[in-house]
Amino acid sequence: MKTIKLIDLAKTIRSKNAGTDRITFDIIFDDKEKYELVKNSKVINKNFIADLYNIDIDRITDFVEFDPGYAIKFTINRLKPSGSPGEGDIFGCQQYPPLLDIEIPVYMPQH
User: Fold this and answer.
1) What does R_g of the chain's alpha carbons equal in angstroms?
2) How many CB atoms are closer than 10 A to CB 35?
3) Could you give the CA distance from residue 76 to residue 104 in angstroms, rounded to a whole number?
4) How many domains does the chain have?
5) What sign does the CA torsion over 40, 63, 56, 15 have?
């Protein structure tokens, strides 16, 4: 089965603060075809994200497939508030890299 990396499908993959106690992630596509390919693959889901980030699934507060914006969005609770001692990413903007190499299956028609 052929696969393609998420970074080669998405226009934007980012993370950022969602208040002091949460980080939100956005995977945004520039067209419906790419968005539907990823969405319909069912690869990206709450369980997958929990495994990818090695976190309890309960830390994922939201997971949304937002069809009008061709986007998949999820939010996780931080272990420590943004800017507190020992917290290493004050803006939450350095948390997205594990998403880049997610392999999405591409089904090729049989001849």
Assistant:
1) 15
2) 23
3) 22
4) 1
5) positive
Please give the structure tokens belonging to residue 91: 């803006």
CA distance 24 to 16: 6
CB 26 within 8 A of CB 12: yes
Task: Kindly report the CATH number assigned to the domain that includes residue 76.
Answer: 3.30.70
Model pTM above 0.70: yes
Task: Assess if residue 65 is contained within a domain.
Answer: yes
In whole angstroms, give the CA distance from residue 39 to residue 53: 19
Backbone angles phi, psi at 23, to 5 degrees: -125, 135
Residue 111 lies in a domain: no
Assess if residue 22 is contained within a domain. yes
- Do 94 and 82 touch, CB atoms closer than 8 A? no
User: Residues 15-38: pLDDT tens digits?
Assistant: 999 999 999 999 999 999 999 999
Range of the domain at 57: 2-106
